[in-house]
Amino acid sequence: MNGMKSRVLSGGVIGWALGSCLSANVAAQTGDLKTDQLVASSTAVIERQLGESENRRIPADLRSQAKCIAVFPAVVKVGLIVAGKRGNGLISCRHPQTKAWGTPAIFNITAASVGIQAGIQSASYVFLFLNKKSADGLLKEKVKFGSDFSVAAGPVGGGANLDTQPAVVSYVRTEGLFAGVDLEGAALTFNEASNAEVYGWDADAQHLLSGEQPLTEKFRSYVGALTKFAP
Predict the structure, then answer these.
(1) Is 58 helix (H, G, I), strand (E, B) or coil?
(2) Phi then psi for 94, rounded to 5 degrees?
(3) pLDDT tens digit string along 152-197?
(4) pLDDT at 11 > cutoff 70
(5) Residue 32: how many CB atoms within 10 A of its CB?
(6) How far apart are CA 43 and CA 223, in angstroms?
(7) What H or E segment, with its residue span, contains residue 61?
(8) Percentage, residues of the chain above pLDDT 90
(9) Quick count: other Cβ atoms within 10 Å of Cβ 180?
């Protein structure tokens, strides 16, 4: 366990050319994208990864194993003296029976530091939740990397693999720079207001991530891309 923790803390997240259609003004100010922008940007992140050469892709076996996938297309630096990081993103989980990707829930990511190097204002993140424990953890509506489950830098390339499989693997791309990242203490929180705006006031993480909610038209393009990315 100590070896894994050490590996997580010291391991840099391997970046790749995710690319995305970000709203620079909105993201730079708050880290929160409006729902339509969030869907378009998250879809672009997935589609760009699909268009990469094999040696720059997330390995197919990890994609097929994923129970849930999170995409945060615009995590930005907030604050001048004490610089935190924040942004919103989409998390989808497979239906327990059909294994099809369900309609996504909107989550926020926050941390005192998410490993964005000095001078870098924005980054895109993708997380693959590889086991049931990590997927079930999302139902609590707030989870913290390092304390609720293990997270490690994800490998890239067709033949890449992990010596020891953590609960979550993570990937990042900064503005033109592949950077290492320390995710210890970063938190994912269910965004009640944004989900209520899309689904209704009774929406909660359990309802959305369990596959009970029918897919809405707003997220059809994103889920279509996700299905190609991780069939």
Answers:
(1) coil
(2) -75, 145
(3) 777 677 655 666 678 888 888 766 544 345 566 788 999 999 999 9
(4) no
(5) 18
(6) 8
(7) helix 60-65
(8) 34
(9) 14
Largest CA distance in the chain: 49
The pTM of this model reads: 0.81
Task: Count other C-beta atoms under 10 Å from residue 227's C-beta.
Answer: 13
Cβ-count burial 4-24 (b if 16+ within 10 Å, e if not): eeeebeebebbbbebbbebbe
Tokens of 65: 């194993």
Sole residue written with tokens 């994912």: 188
Residues with Cβ < 8 Å from 188, sequence gap 6 or more? 70, 91, 107, 108, 109, 138, 142, 143, 144, 145
- Residue 17, amino acid: A
Position 179 scores a pLDDT of 37
Spatial neighbors of 173 by CB under 8 A, at least 6 apart, are 15, 16, 17, 18, 19, 123, 124
Token couple for 184: 């210890």
Q: What count of other Cβ atoms lies within 10 Å of the Cβ of residue 1?
A: 6
| Per-residue pLDDT, 115 | 46
Q: How would you list the strands of the sheet with 122-129, edge to edge?
A: 142-144, 187-190, 105-111, 84-93, 68-78, 122-129, 168-174, 151-153
Residues 6+ apart with CB under 8 A from 127: 69, 70, 72, 151, 168, 169, 170, 171
